[in-house]
Design a protein that fits this description.
single chain, about 80 residues, mainly alpha, 2 helices, globular
Amino acid sequence: MDTTPQTSPIMDGSDDATNAERLAGLQQQVDSDLAGATDDEKAEHLRVRMAETDVQDEPDAERPDAPAAEVDPGR
């Protein structure tokens, strides 16, 4: 059994998404996973997930209702 941590998608075609699409997907996952959390908690979790998956912030992207719109990934 492989014990190497999974840091990227494994399904065919999953690497075809743009960074902005990957970021939007992470935001949806975080919003769903942490439904009762504060915006600060969601933003911190999103920063961790971005680092784990090598997704970069998209400061010019439109992201309504995304608590991570003000995320500084370098923090």
